[in-house]
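Hello support,

Our group uses your service weekly, and this is the first time we've seen a run hang past the timeout. The protein is TIGR03086 family protein. I'm not sure whether the cause is the sequence or the server load. Input pasted verbatim:
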Amino acid sequence: MNRDDVYPCMTECAAEAARIARGVAPRQLDAPTSCGEWDVRALANHWILYTSHGLEHRARRIPLPEELTRQDFTADPAWADAYAGQLDRAVAAWADPQVWEGDIDLGFMTMPAVEIASLIVKELAVHGWDMATATGQELRVSDATARLVLDVVEAHAEVYRQYDGFVAPVTLPDDAPAFERALALSGRDPRRAEASAAGH
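Update from on-call engineer: The timeout came from a worker crash unrelated to the input. Re-ran successfully.
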């Protein structure tokens, strides 16, 4: 996995995340999500923090400021536009090929930059699906992105489960599409999206 594999998927997922965020109605912020006890507001704050601010800070090799980790981004009525703008800045920061070289210090461990980037692409896509499903929308990803997200989930699922980031996997047919298999391996039921769409 290298920049040429990951960067197009990052760009694609960032655009999808911005589109989905703009489709969230204010009345939906208190709605439940597939992420345990998180409502849409809590999911949005996590999503915004790590996939836009976190994405840019990782590229620049600087820690997230403490005040950002406590911020309710959704308190701003224009939060979705602000998120889209921050995503643009983050993706631009990763446009520099040198950013992809070497390791990134996370404070508690270091990881290769390309691996950090792939993990955040997974966050963009999987939490993008969570947000879309909770708000009656649909996440659209290319085959290449679906495959990359599946590879990341397969590589890291057990570590995520150890820290309660994922729950038990959901069983799907062997011929299920790659992105559905990634969702299922992370403990999400892709059939929930169909039920959600039918209910809106």
